[in-house]
Amino acid sequence: MIAAHEAAPSTASSLEQRYGRDRQRRVDRRAGLALGAVLLALIGGVLVFGRWWESSDLEFTVVHYEVVDDRTVTLDFDVTAPSGAPVACAIEALSPSFSTVGWRVLELPESDVRTRSFTETILTTYRATTGRVHSCWIMTAGAE
């Protein structure tokens, strides 16, 4: 009886090696490594293609607009641009149907100050309901 009792642990350990836990641990480790690799690739893709760490060198914000009369809108806006860069902005006045009823392209003077404030007047063909900055861009040589 003692011989049979001593043989049982070796039989159990050989069964575990053949069918059991070691194989499951290897599968779990492989699945974990594969999941980690996919997650790392996903995070890398977001960083590379999302470019969330970059901020624009050129930004604009409308601070205030006022419809003065049927033919005039004043627009107060801020422009943030690299120091010393020549900048141009297109400003517009819109009707209630969002049609453009006034448009101007402004060449803003170069400055050592990054963020500057401007107040401009837009003449309109009909009464406007709003004024906005359509876009701004850094002018290149020969584009003036």
How is this structure best described in words?
The protein is of the alpha+beta class and 144 residues long. It folds into two domains: 2-50; 59-138, Immunoglobulin-like, CATH 2.60.40. The protein is 33% helix and 38% strand. The strands form two sheets. It has a three-stranded antiparallel sheet with strand order 1-2-5, with no helix packed on it. Strands 4-3-6 form a three-stranded antiparallel sheet, with no helix packed on it. Strand 1 (59-69) and strand 2 form a beta hairpin.
The gist of it:
With 144 residues, this protein is α+β, with helices and mostly antiparallel strands. 33% of the residues lie in helices and 38% in strands. The strands form two sheets. It has a three-stranded antiparallel beta sheet with strand order 1-2-5, with no helix packed on it. Strands 4-3-6 form a three-stranded antiparallel beta sheet, with no helix packed on it.
For the structure shown, list the relevant keywords.
about 140 residues; alpha+beta; Immunoglobulin-like; three-stranded antiparallel beta sheet
Secondary structure blueprint with pairings:
Layout: H1 2-19, H2 21-50, E1 59-69, E2 72-80, E3 87-94, E4 100-108, E5 115-123, E6 130-138
Antiparallel strand pairs: 1-2, 2-5, 3-4, 3-6
* Total strands: 6
Q: If you average the pLDDT, what whole number results?
A: 83
- Roughly how much helix do the residues carry, as a percent range? 25-40%
Q: Which class of the largest domain in CATH terms?
A: Mainly Beta
What is the spatial order of strands in the main beta sheet?
A: 1-2-5
Indicate the proportion of strand residues: 35-45%
Unreliable segments of 5+ consecutive residues = none
